[in-house]
Design a protein that fits this description.
Elements lengths: L13 H11 L2 H7 L3 E3 L2 E4 L2 E6 L4 H7 L18 E5 L4 E8 L7 H4 L3 H12 L5 E8 L9 H9 L3 E4 L11
Parallel strand pairs: 5-6, 6-7
Antiparallel strand pairs: 1-2, 2-3, 3-4, 4-5
């Protein structure tokens, strides 16, 4: 029997499908399209650095460590955001987690963890007097009615979710 090609994700295709979704929902691309300049991790508007784009380990290497924060003093492990935007003006770190799914699987079970992760990032940011907002960018799969309770829980826990794009207005880029 010939093997069917996995176009939905899961198993060996999880990284490939998720990576494509992450690239389609790039924070830096969205910022650039909106007229901002991204130079390294610096986000610039009208010649002024307004914040930092800090994906994955860059949150630690480009912001936390240079500001004297050793994650081990606050968290038992490193939490790497898919993307994050640090807004200098309102002193908020926006943690952006992207979840792609095209069929039943384990990704949907991860959504209720938002409050825990927000809490872990807040531990890191409190000494620097920054607050944390946590948001998901979800694929269309999660618009199905079976996720109604899960998505309501995300909101009830003080987190946010959006579909297929990063809404720049939520980052309060004034």
């Amino acid at each position: 029997m010939p093997r069917k090609i996995n176009t939905h994700g899961g198993g060996a295709r999880t990284n490939a499908n998720g990576l494509a979704f992450e690239q389609q929902t790039s924070l830096n691309d969205a910022l650039t399209a909106a007229g901002y300049t991204v130079f390294g991790v610096n986000v610039i508007k009208n010649g002024q650095t307004i914040g930092l784009s800090l994906p994955k380990k860059k949150l630690y290497t480009e912001f936390l460590a240079p500001n004297g924060i050793d994650y081990r003093d606050y968290n038992s492990k490193v939490w790497e955001p898919d993307e994050a935007f640090l807004n200098y003006q309102n002193r908020t770190l926006y943690v952006i987690e992207k979840k792609f799914q095209k069929c039943a699987g384990s990704v949907d079970e991860k959504l209720p963890n938002c409050h825990f992760k927000k809490q872990e990032y807040q531990k890191l940011m409190t000494p620097l007097d920054y607050k944390v907002e946590f948001l998901y960018v979800l694929s269309d799969w999660f618009q199905d009615s079976r996720y109604r309770d899960t998505l309501q829980y995300v909101v009830d826990m003080g987190c946010l979710y959006y579909f297929n794009q990063i809404p720049l207005e939520i980052l309060e880029l004034t």
